Amino acid sequence: MINVLITIQFKEDVLDPEGKAIAASLHNLGYSEVGAVMTGRLIRLTLDESDTARAMQKAAKMCEVLLVNTIIETYDITIEDGEENSA
Amino acid sequence: MINVLITIQFKEDVLDPEGKAIAASLHNLGYSEVGAVMTGRLIRLTLDESDTARAMQKAAKMCEVLLVNTIIETYDITIEDGEENSA
Q1: How high is the mean pLDDT in each 10-residue block of chain B (87 residues)?
Q2: Residue A66: which of B26, B35, B41 has the nearest Cβ?
């Protein structure tokens, strides 16, 4: 059983209105030291798989076909023991 | 300037319908090896601050007052050089 963590963020030039709203709210609360704020999603899943390389491959495929809108988002896959793979 | 990563997840006994929907969709796509799926949010922000301990404290306060619904969610704060602090 392998634990996979997928973090998904907007590509750099994509507008992130939630991030902008959070930044404005923090400024209103007095946190003037806050600069850029970016939001994203995370998906944590367990895979009934023993090979981490294959788990990584499968997770990447899942990102491409379902989990991530690759037009506007990028993702990182982390296997819980620390390996990482970006796209 | 300190980069702060905040990851927010539902507490363990809170229903995560999006996670369940993702698990069902992955099963439908043939990924029968997928077990539990949990979703969460991530917020990445820059703080105009030099002391990491103080940045961590401020970020925790921001989580408590605005960013996190602490009734149903938990958060982790990571300063980009690796320190971590849970709640």
Answers
A1: 96 96 97 96 95 95 97 95 55
A2: B26
